[in-house]
Amino acid sequence: MEYLYFPGCSLEGAGRQYDESLRAVFRALGLGLKELEDWNCCGATIYMSVDEATSLAVSARNLAIAGRDGGRDLVAPCSACYTVLLKTNRFLRESPELREKVDRLLGEAGLAYHLDVRVRHPLDVLVNDVGIQTIASAATRRFDGLRLAPYYGCQIVRPERGFDHSEFPEAMDKLFGALGAEPVYFPVKTRCCGGMLMTTFPEVALDLVRELLVCATENGAECILTTCPMCQVNLEAYQDRVNKKFGTSFAIPVLFFTQLLGLALGCEEKALGLQRNLIPLKLRAAA
Amino acid sequence: MRQRKTVPGSLPPRERELRQIFLREVEVVPGGDRLSRCLQCGTCSGSCPVSYAMDLSPRAVIALFRAGLIEEILHSRSIWICASCYMCTTRCPQQIKITDLLYALKRVAMEKGLYPDRFPVYLISKNFVRLIGRYGRNHELMLVVRFYLKHKPLELVRLLPLGLAMFRRGRLMLLPKRIRGVAAIRRMIEASEALELPREEAPVQYVPGSVGYRAVGALPERAV
Question: B146 touching A, CB under 8 A?
């Protein structure tokens, strides 16, 4: 199976190890992953708050390129990209007037909107296309007894009815459970990490991050798994700030789920970008 | 459903103007008209992880809109604090797209230049849009540095160790990449702006439900 790949701006910067580990995991499973040609920013949630029609057109340019290149499934790992591309797709499918308008704008770029492109999250692809059993039997390493907090964040499960429950998703729990790990009780798994508020309202975002860290550590998690570059940075890079502000002493590794999955599939640590994480993961002797 | 053809004459001109812009912005959102179904149950405010930091809860935003006090909403911090987690939208028993409505309100605020005092959050949005127009992609470093330089320069000093740590691990892209299709994107943006113009004459739809909502306090006097 061949997938088109939309890395998104964050995966070129702060979320680089997500890009590396995702490619490694797809390679290890024999899945094709072809980067979308000359992709542009999805517009994120910020563009939406400035000009909706323009932001839809900018985001639709990526869908149009995917359609032109014959791609059916466009894999978007960043939660914001995923939700924005999905939303664009749905708005354009539901509203013919909007579609006509966006198509006119795309015409300026020599492109046209294709109805048959699907936006997918890699977690969805791995769990539903490949299957947990297939992955478990391809694994060369298990994580027996590793207690982890699977954190899904907000935008891969909301607002669209996506591939998992919008408040209590289980895809990661099941996937890593099949590899021997023990997902801890983590009821805040889809609570907001604060997103851009870390820049605009740090007091509020630090509060939100603290709640997530408290819940993960008090329930005995040894690491947190994320699916989103924004969540990863907020949870990992700002632990120091949280510690300073609240007098706590958090030092819990925050990994992209593809990094841990890559380890299970026998990828090298460097290929998974593990050296890029600020708080290193210390695994007990491999079983 | 109850339909009326005109905006009630009781609304002050300013309110009417802002409402008109808002309704135009909501038109683009499929299902945006569900606003009128709000029961004021408060599920949105109770589900919102940041409502504690808002001066108007999401429920109050809807109540004020119905009461004809849109300008008050635009001057509140609430619409800028929303982190777009969509919990309210998912849980709303009336399927109101609250997050999308808050986006629409942000767009009205940006268009009319109405912000709470000393409140620069909207600038990050403007910078973001400028970056996309220039490079086709976002550049994390430029976005954040520009924001802090203007508003909290000292914060940059505080963030320096983190920046260095990220840089050492190859997680900080120093220079932006310009995509090949950036000229095409600019043409699209320009064409989109040209398309916007005739919308000023767009017919105004009346959103049912603007019956004075008493619970929000004293309302300005108006003829019925």
Answer: no
